[in-house]
Specification:
The protein is an alpha+beta fold. The protein is built from 14 helices and seven strands.
């Protein structure tokens, strides 16, 4: 292990030695000689051959030369410590390489280098992530590490899959006027509280996207592993949207439009008000005030309140959750199924 650890260390300091060797060529020559020996030893280990004991002894002798002269009795225990440190260095290096490979594979297969918390990956798409709970101890963290490998390998075939948006039994909101014959079907999964979803919606609207596709809007309140909602009022918004849709198809579009594009008298986005300011009761009151503006009378509001509490509405939310998280294995939204492909992250006009 000593020669392998030596190669790892020599490889890491190579950049610094290269700079120094410009002014002191002897150091560069000595470094290359040691690196060549270390590589030869490593290559033999890879081929399951015995390493040259001479190089191992050279490393130890170099590190312990002064100790040999002043404290000969310390040589043996320090030699043992060097062996242990060498094992640690090799294990850390192997772990770092595997983690780098896992992150790159996850970025390619899932769109995020962090499987558990996609939003923590700065290289991934701009999303509102569907996070898993953080491990509470070493054993859970170790188990999660291996589980993430499984999720990545399961997701790899999805990269080559053709997504037919009409094949998934989502509970969705129709655009005004229903679906138009001849236009392709697209699925747009969003959370009313997600700021990226809001920007995507505005981009789609401005680009005329909703006129070129039969878009099925799928409201999806993001939950964590403990069942808590990422945005505090998303669930009640979605429940009212499904309840309105049950009575009058397309009528819940008014709620989406106001949350994603509207502002209050103070110029504050309604999405921010629902996420940061409104209590549950205030959120319900605001939604019902919009519903009244859209033509519902008090009897209609009363009926809506009853439907909102129905277990069927909960079933619709759970059915969408099953499709999004388990069938599509989505790690963040907005996510769209369009033209046979899955697009996760911010939708731009050029998309």
């Amino acid at each position: 292990m000593v020669c392998i650890a030596a190669f790892i260390i020599l490889a890491l300091i190579g950049v610094f030695v290269a700079g120094i060797s410009i002014f002191k060529p002897k150091i560069g020559k000595a470094y290359l000689k040691a690196l060549k020996k270390a590589w030869g030893c490593l290559w033999k280990k890879v081929r399951l051959q015995k390493c040259e004991t001479g190089f191992k002894d050279d490393v130890k002798n170099t590190l312990l030369s002064r100790v040999m002269l002043k404290h000969p009795k310390w040589v043996k225990p320090l030699s043992f410590v060097i062996e242990i440190l060498s094992v640690v260095i090799v294990l850390v290096a192997v772990w770092a390489i595997l983690t780098a490979i896992k992150s790159l594979l996850a970025l390619w297969a899932l769109g995020s280098c962090n499987v558990t918390k996609p939003s923590a990956c700065s290289l991934g798409a701009e999303v509102c992530s569907i996070d898993e709970s953080e491990p509470s101890n070493v054993f859970e963290a170790t188990g999660r590490w291996f589980t993430e490998w499984g999720e990545i390998f399961e997701a790899i075939p999805d990269k080559f899959k053709t997504y037919n948006a009409g094949d998934y039994s989502f509970n969705y909101i129709e655009m005004s006027g229903g679906e138009v014959d001849g236009l392709p079907i697209a699925v747009d999964i969003f959370d009313p509280g997600c700021s990226v979803c809001m920007i995507s919606y505005r981009n789609q609207k401005n680009a005329g996207f909703f006129d070129s596709q039969n878009v099925r809007l799928v409201p999806f309140p993001i939950q964590d592993a403990n069942g808590e909602y990422k945005f505090k009022n998303s669930e009640i918004i979605v429940r009212y949207m499904f309840a309105i849709e049950q009575l009058r198809s397309g009528a819940s579009l008014g709620i989406i439009e106001r949350i994603f594009t509207g502002k209050n008298s103070e110029g504050i986005s309604y999405q921010n008000k629902f996420n940061d300011d409104y209590t549950h009761e205030e959120a319900v009151a605001k939604i019902e005030s919009w519903i009244r503006e859209d033509g519902f009378d008090e009897d209609g509001i009363k009926e809506l309140r009853e439907i909102v509490a129905y277990p069927e509405i909960t079933d619709k939310i759970n059915q969408n959750k099953e499709i999004v998280e388990n069938q599509l294995r989505v790690k963040g939204i907005p996510t769209m199924l369009i033209d046979g492909k899955r697009h996760t992250g911010l939708w731009k006009a050029e998309d």
